[in-house]
Amino acid sequence: MQLRPSLVCAIGGVALLSACSSVDNSGTAIAYGGNPLTYSSSVNSAVGGAVPTTAFGKSLKAEYIAYAQREADEWYDFFDADFFAKKAGKVAENETILPEDPANWRFDAEEVAQKRAVRDELIALLDDGKREAKPDTAAIAQARFDCWIEESEEGWQTELISQCWKDFEAAMAELKAEEPKEAMAPAPVAAAPRLFTIFFDFDSTAITPVSERVLDAAAQQWASSMSNVTVVGHADASGSSAYNLGLSERRASSALSELTKRGIKGDMVDSEAVGESDLLIPTPDGVREPRNRRVTISID
Q: What's the pLDDT at 13?
């Protein structure tokens, strides 16, 4: 939730609410906060406003409108509903609207640093041509990132926070995926191993629906090459080293079981567990980091 009017403003009544709800969120895509009294006009203005001229803009506008309507209709959060409706309106004006800056939301310094690293990675992909190459996926990635930021700040809808993150990760994986290129007289050199990564919820070995799709892709890759497979389990730094080693081993075992179900021969798979010794995102000891809770699958 964006910065809110103070209690004094709320007591002041309807006449003051509109004035008090506008805040200066310098550095954000939109330099004002949401106002529950203007939600209806904001969303109607966005829906009936100009149509963006780019495919990415059209998709992003639709994502923000849908999120604003869900905030209002399902959770009665008209502050944030109005905020994202106005953000959709800015997209319709063909402005370059960036993902939310965590520093403008209520996070401590450590959380801001962690979330900004994620934001920087997303912006780097968008600026590297992914808005044009994969407009729908890029729009989903930005909208789900903003959803993750907003819901994480509120902190009570844990399932929604997790779903926003999973959707964001899936979109990011698609943005990072290399497009197949037409082979032209390839030189006789060994192909680089293909790496697939699946992620886990906190203290969990359960395979998520997003990970199911990654495992399907890994099995298809193996079927086309019949190469050796290496499965490595990881954990974040939130528990003891000994516990995390065991947890990473169970995650590797869970991934291996799913791969064998998909036809990969067990005698062609090497499996190992490294616990918290090889963090994808370096963090202090005891810090929960979703991207460190993973299993990597390398196919030669």
A: 30
